[in-house]
Specification:
Blueprint (H helix, E strand, L loop, with lengths): L9 E10 L3 H11 L5 E4 L26 H9 L10 E2 L2 E2 L5 H14 L3 E3 L3 E8 L2 E9 L2 E12 L5 H5 L4 E3 L14 E4 L24 H10 L11 E4 L6 E4 L11 H25 L7 E5 L9 E3 L7 H6 L6 E6 L24 E4 L11 E3 L8 H7 L2 H20 L9 H10 L5
Parallel strand pairs: 1-2, 1-8, 2-5, 8-17
Antiparallel strand pairs: 3-4, 6-7, 7-8, 9-14, 10-12, 10-13, 11-12, 15-16
Helix pairs in contact: 1-9, 9-10
The structure holds flavin-adenine dinucleotide.
Length: 436
């Protein structure tokens, strides 16, 4: 152990401090700012968007009730692509993204709403007085600096601030702690649109010209080594542009997305897998003979890390039975229970099960033990299976919006977020047109 003690400057202050500039963090910051409080967002990378941009993840999946920031964000992202094909699938409507455009659109959204943003600034500690979180320590080119805030929203995906504050969390499935596999998504161009298939997942009944089921063919190719280990389906999503596909196919299991050793191992392996998947497409899939790699994720796609335990834990039955609650801050959230197999290829449960539109309760955003901290996005409180549904971007945006409003309201009412009545948040949401 090495004892490191240093006095550091407080370089910034905010009413609401949002950590992480992904789908959840963006919506949290904008919705808080719209309540008239002073908001600062901290993002470790040099661009905004999280998985939506730097993870090259497309399409935006999932649904929530009408009137949330999800509607606003997809409206902005598709404003110049109104006539583009939107494919309706078992997963719901595929909402495409142009990740390059999105970087500009989303940073403008923050700027237009008076959210101050610190890019290339990583949160590496929290400041606590007793059990009250009142700031963070960040790593900057000038060394460690402190930032103070009245309320903090952890939208880091990994629940990093909550972890540093001493909150309890779960990682992976209860039986063995294994998490969903990691993936590097990439985009290809030069696909012959007239002949090329699309494929949304292993349950998609798409066939090849010889009548063979594409999913069966992928499985065979994985078994005989043409496709990388555990890549038993190569998902091919349309983008806004004819001749392009977003490919969700590389995969590595048993990677802990919180550990730098694992992240590098996966980076090396999955860059290699991109070449193998390209070979497969060019050799065996009609219409893809001349496809070219256009772009790939700037950062490893991590589906699952910490789930911070909150006042309420979203449970399997909530998403399976479509439970509704009178303290819901997100209504009619819907997506499949999409568990990419933690211990092999394909889906963990054979195929993804359907969820029934469900509510997310305010308590799922309030970590136990510490005050003035909220969570938003994929690190909120829930089981492994519930998380497999609410982790998609539409739902993450809605939890972000609810957390932002709750943080701002709790300042105005001078109560800790834990003591804030969910009905007050629901009233603001309803007043701005959110169906609850
Ligand atoms: C391979 C893959 C495919 C997926 N496919 C789909 C799909 O097709 N459709 C869909 O809707 N969803 C998909 N998902 C799920 C979805 O992308 C994520 O669950 C969602 O983006 C989570 O949103 P978030 O805002 O909580 O976190 P993120 O998008 O991860 O954003 C978190 C942000 O916090 C920042 N951050 C983290 N730590 C720190 C720190 N210490 N300091 C400062 N900033 C920090 C990160 O850089 C990032 O910008 C996929 C996920 C993966 C990995």
């Amino acid at each position: 152990m090495f004892n490191y003690t240093k006095k550091i400057d407080i370089i910034n202050e905010a009413d609401v401090l949002v950590l992480g500039g992904g789908p959840a963090g963006i919506c949290a910051a904008v919705s808080a700012a719209r309540q008239g409080v002073n908001v600062l967002l901290i993002e470790r990378y040099g661009a905004i968007g999280g998985n939506l941009t730097l993870g090259n993840v497309s399409p935006i999946l999932g649904r929530v009730s009408s009137g949330t920031m999800y509607d606003e964000v997809i409206g902005l992202l598709s404003a110049t692509h109104k006539d583009e094909l939107k494919v309706e699938t078992r997963n719901g409507k595929e909402i495409h993204i142009d990740a390059e455009e999105a970087k500009g659109i989303l940073v403008k959204l923050l700027n237009d709403n008076n959210v101050r943003v610190m890019l290339q600034t990583a949160v590496c500690d929290v400041i606590k007085e007793d059990n009250v979180v009142c700031g963070v320590v960040v790593a900057t080119p000038f060394g460690m600096k402190a930032i103070k805030a009245k309320r903090i929203i952890d939208a880091t995906g990994d629940g990093t601030a909550a972890y540093l504050a001493g909150c309890e969390y779960k990682l992976g499935r209860d039986s063995d702690g294994r998490t969903q596999p990691v993936t590097l998504e990439f985009t290809i161009s030069n696909v012959d649109e007239a002949r090329a298939i699309m494929c949304f997942g292993g349950s998609d009944p798409v066939t090849l010209p010889d009548g063979k089921k594409y999913s069966e063919f992928c499985k065979e190719c994985e078994q005989n080594g043409i496709l990388p280990k555990n890549v038993s389906i190569v998902r091919l999503h349309r983008t806004f542009y004819p001749g392009e596909r977003n490919v969700n196919a590389t995969q590595m299991n048993d990677i802990n997305g919180l550990k730098y050793e694992d992240v590098f191992t996966a980076e090396v392996e999955l860059r290699d897998q991109i070449d193998k998947v390209l070979d497969f497409l060019r050799k065996y899939v009609p219409g893809y003979e001349n496809c070219m790699l256009k772009t790939s994720a700037d950062t490893l796609g991590v589906r699952e890390t910490r789930r911070i335990i909150g006042e309420y834990v979203m449970c399997d039955e909530d998403v399976e039975q479509g439970r509704h609650y009178d303290d819901a801050v997100v209504h009619n959230a819907w997506f499949l229970i999409d568990i990419h197999n933690p211990s092999g290829g394909g889906q963990a449960e054979g195929h993804s099960k359907m969820a029934v539109p469900y509510d997310i309760r305010y308590g799922a955003l309030i970590p136990l033990k510490v005050e003035n901290l909220l969570t938003a996005g994929r690190c909120i409180s829930g089981t492994h299976r519930a998380h497999a549904s609410y982790r998609v971007m539409a739902i993450c945006m809605a939890t972000g919006q609810a957390a932002g409003i709750a943080a701002a309201l709790s300042i105005k009412k001078n109560v800790s977020p834990r003591m804030l009545d969910a009905q007050e948040i629901r009233k603001v949401l309803t007043d701005i047109g959110v169906e609850l």
